[in-house]
Specification:
single chain; about 625 residues; alpha/beta; 6-stranded parallel sheet; about 35% helix; globular
């Protein structure tokens, strides 16, 4: 066979490959050097980008250093390489489509999903905000109310409108969705939901008269309507891939969805910096993407709403620079906030008053809800808050002694950390104490879970640590012959496969560490049209968490979409754990209607632990 003719796959790629800078001994000099040409697809062929795990064999795949990916060129991908094919809406597929004139195949095997009336209403509110010229919207509906479908409906219409108006000339509408971890579940969930909503739309058609030719456009005509949005679903840790070497965004999106937007509340992280660049936070309002922030738990306090800075500036008719420091600007507006360890927190008076926090949060909420049209929507679940009951554990005399020893060690470690003003050592001491305390109660949680499973219930077990909780609990249950799905361990298990095992009834128990973005509720409609089991769900919080945001998110894993999930909070009787649990449950019950956060409970817990000198993030993150 004669060698394949080669040329750069695109002008953009060619520009990036023609030069490089090399260093010689003693001095540096720039030398132009022509790189090896990259492969390209001939007529009737496709250039496939493959996601081949390290150490795996992929016969027929070619490594292209310039793309940092394996490739294969053929009309159809060989069966041996199909496991490594890019998935629809993934970053790998996005790059692959950039290199081909025809986009890859859309998701298949999905059932059309008819949105509920409440979801249409929510989408209409978001669309109205976009049409008014606003640049952001906050969707703060309670867990399980169907935010994902609401967001998809709104994003499609807004992106299409911008495309039709000419703001996206030369390409299909672009929509970016950032999701929480584990990506194996959250990306799959979004992909299936988008496909289900779009399943009833046309899927074939020729380029319209207004659409550019294949040579002029990035996407090419493909097999989809010209105005069907092009989706990219990505995790926060991948956002930096969307930035060029100079830090500028490589792509322009019409709509950006920040799912679980509370992930972007701390501005001093790499993922937040990348998100702000990709979403073009510094651009003028009329040229920036429309950003939809979605979360049931927006923040611990209003100063953490940093991801809404552009719309706050827009509402107040101020320069973006005036909202660069959201906490300082809110304090200037009279909110009871003070700078503490480099972050903004409630003032001492507000920290002790839930009413003052509620009133202050309402002020910020009114900035959004009293705008015309409103720029925020918060709707409680129609089935009410998740039932949460205490689950005290009576320790044996030996266990009580071990607990007292652990508590004494913790107090010594915390005292030394406080004297040295070492927040890192203080945080580590809190973590070690929580791990040891939870380890003592593992046998009791196992007994309780086993009893629930034997009573024909499916059990969700929320833990915060792997080696001292998740593994021991799961292993002990399986030793008793109870099947367990495991969603923890940073890639040790296939998260989506494990979730489906639980949902399909193949596992009676699911042990998980994630706080959001997975659904374990009964009767869930699956992507293939099947339904999850209708077996009653019950959950246990094995370790009383310190963050109200995290706790509320965990409760929403089984208490959602019309299904009532009963939860129990485990703790050891007559210990500091009991005081922490009571404090957390009290705050969750008294602030169920507050959107924006209440850290009074967090500060009380910190005082109980002698950790009130640490920053709030030491306990809440």
């Amino acid at each position: 066979m004669p060698p394949r003719r080669r040329r750069p796959a695109s002008k953009a790629v060619a520009r990036n490959l023609t030069t490089r800078t090399v260093k010689s001994q003693g001095k540096s000099r720039a030398t132009k050097k022509t790189a090896k040409a990259v492969p390209f697809a001939s007529a009737g062929e496709r250039l496939w980008l493959l996601d081949v795990p390290y150490g795996s064999s992929a016969p027929g795949a070619l490594w292209v250093p310039q793309w940092k990916a394996f490739t294969h060129i053929s009309a159809e991908l060989p069966a041996a390489l199909k496991p490594y094919a890019s998935r629809p809406f993934s970053y790998q597929r996005w790059l692959e489509d950039e290199l081909n004139t025809v986009p890859g195949s859309p998701p298949t095997a999905v059932m059309p999903k008819e949105p509920r009336h409440q979801q249409y209403e929510g989408a209409d509110a978001i669309i109205a905000a976009a049409e008014s010229g606003a640049r952001q919207f906050l969707l703060a509906d309670a867990p399980g109310t169907g935010k994902t479908i609401t967001l998809i409906l709104a994003a499609i219409e807004i992106a299409k409108s911008r495309w039709a108006s000419g703001s996206a000339t030369g390409r299909r509408p672009h929509i970016l969705v950032t999701v929480d971890r584990p990506a194996a579940i959250t990306v799959a969930h979004w992909r299936a939901s988008i496909a289900a909503v779009q399943a009833g739309e046309p899927t074939a058609g020729e380029p319209t008269a207004d659409e550019p030719t294949a040579d002029e456009q990035i996407d090419g005509p493909g097999s989809e309507p010209a105005d069907r949005p092009r989706w990219l679903i990505i995790s926060p840790d991948q956002l930096s891939k969307l930035l060029a070497g100079n830090g500028k965004p490589r792509f322009r999106f019409d709509v950006v969805i920040l799912d679980e937007a509370q992930l972007y509340r701390h501005v001093d992280t790499k993922r937040v910096s990348a998100m702000r660049r990709v979403a073009r936070y510094s651009d003028p309002h009329d040229s920036a993407p429309f950003v939809i922030a979605a979360t049931a738990t927006p923040s611990h306090n209003p100063a953490e709403l940093t991801y809404l800075a552009p719309v706050f500036a827009q509402i107040h008719a101020e320069e973006l620079s005036e909202w660069e420091n959201v906490g300082a600007r809110m304090a200037q507006a009279g909110l009871p906030l003070v700078a503490r360890y480099g972050k903004w927190a409630w003032s001492p008076a507000a920290a002790e008053s839930g009413a003052l926090q509620s009133d202050s949060t309402a002020v910020v909420r009114r900035w959004l809800t009293h705008h015309q049209p409103p720029l925020m929507l918060h709707r409680a679940a129609e089935w009410g808050e998740a039932p949460l009951e205490p689950m005290p554990v009576e320790l044996t005399a030996q266990e009580q002694e071990q607990y007292r020893i652990n508590w004494g060690e913790f107090q010594r470690e915390m005292g030394l950390a406080r004297v040295g003003r070492s927040a890192a050592k203080g945080r580590a001491a809190v973590t070690r104490f929580r791990q040891k305390a939870g380890m003592i109660r593992v046998p009791y949680t196992v007994d309780w879970v086993a009893a629930q499973a034997e009573s024909d219930r499916q059990v969700a077990v929320s833990v915060e640590f792997v080696s001292t909780a998740a593994d021991p609990i799961a292993d002990a249950l399986e030793e008793r012959g109870i099947s367990v799905a495991r969603i923890y361990g940073s890639g040790r298990f296939d998260a989506e496969a494990e979730r489906l095992r639980f949902q399909q009834g193949k596992a009676a128990v699911c042990v998980f560490t994630v706080t959001s973005s997975i659904s374990l509720h009964a009767s869930e409609m699956m992507a293939d049209g099947s339904s999850a089991t209708d077996t009653a769900r019950v959950g246990v919080l094995h370790q009383p968490g310190y963050s109200g945001i995290a706790a509320r998110q965990r409760l929403g894993r089984i208490h959602r979409d019309g299904q009532v999930g009963e939860w129990w909070m485990a703790y050891a009787e007559d210990t500091i754990e009991e005081q922490v649990a009571v404090t957390l449950m009290d705050r969750l019950r008294s602030t169920s209607e507050i959107v924006g956060g209440d850290t009074a409970g967090l500060h009380r817990i910190a005082a109980l632990l002698g950790a009130d000198w640490l920053p709030d993030s030491a306990l809440s993150d």
